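Re: the request from the purification team.
They wanted to know what the chain is likely to look like in 3D before they choose a buffer screen. I agreed to run a prediction and write the result into the notebook, where they can find it.
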Amino acid sequence: MDRSSQLLKGVLDMCLLSLIAQEPSYGYEMAAKLEKRGLRLVSEGSIYPALSRLQKTGMVEGYFVEADGSGPPRKYYRIAADGQSHLELWTGEWEALSTGVMSVLNGGVDDD
């Protein structure tokens, strides 16, 4: 697995929760949204296990919606209260981490 995939794996749950918090979505739709926003390494094969994990831990709720016309019903996900609190916590942690990493990469000054 390449480095970009490893980095993304660490933040995929947070990204999925953020998308679902914006509006309920189904797996394929989330993969397309992530790709459109520049996360091209995300496949449906990595999204569905993450969604299952988020549902098992009570962060999202799954429900079925009949497809327009033909086809099977689609499983949509909406954020649960626990997922919203985790998203807020993870967002703060991510902001602190990314600020620190960018400081290191940009040659930030040590205060020692």
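For the purification team: Helices lie at 3-22, 27-36, 44-56, 81-105.
Please add any questions underneath this entry.
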